[in-house]
């Protein structure tokens, strides 16, 4: 019971934004994982790049903020991983499209 009480009253517990921010932020990597089932032609290269930059910046923030927010760090590391995968799918799709267009012109 003391462990639960100490977590409840801690500076990163459920009474703070250090807990609820990352909790709701998990919707980003969850949505990205669900998008991996979609065809790569539907991926927005610009938005995926922005999401990669966003997660990179907030990984740094989560590490340097006091108290250190590991929950937020793990959330953005997960999002960064999935977004980089999506970006690689988009790049492969774009390069494949250009090759197909060149063959069609010949």
From TrEMBL:
Keyword Transcription: no
Protein's cellular compartments: Mitochondrion inner membrane
Any GO BP annotation: pyruvate import into mitochondria
Gene Ontology, cellular component aspect: mitochondrial inner membrane
A Pfam family recorded for this sequence: MPC
Main localisation: mitochondrion
Its membrane topology: Multi-pass membrane protein
Keywords associated with the record: Membrane, Mitochondrion, Mitochondrion inner membrane, Pyruvate, Transmembrane, Transmembrane helix, Transport
InterPro entries according to UniProt: MPC
Entry superkingdom: Eukaryota
Role this protein plays: Mediates the uptake of pyruvate into mitochondria.
Assigned protein family: Belongs to the mitochondrial pyruvate carrier (MPC) (TC 2.A.105) family.
Protein's name according to its UniProt entry: Mitochondrial pyruvate carrier
Organism: Pisum sativum (Garden pea)
Organismal lineage: Eukaryota, Viridiplantae, Streptophyta, Embryophyta, Tracheophyta
């Amino acid at each position: 019971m003391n462990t639960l009480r100490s977590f409840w009253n801690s500076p990163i517990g459920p009474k703070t934004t250090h807990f609820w921010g990352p909790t709701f932020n998990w919707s980003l990597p969850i949505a990205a994982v669900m998008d991996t089932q979609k065809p790569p032609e539907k991926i927005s290269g610009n938005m995926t790049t922005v999401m990669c930059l966003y997660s990179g910046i907030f990984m740094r923030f989560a590490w340097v903020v006091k108290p250190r927010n590991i929950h937020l760090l793990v959330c953005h590391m997960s999002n960064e991983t999935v977004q980089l995968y999506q970006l690689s799918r988009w790049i492969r799709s774009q390069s494949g499209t250009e090759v197909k267009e060149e063959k069609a012109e010949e």
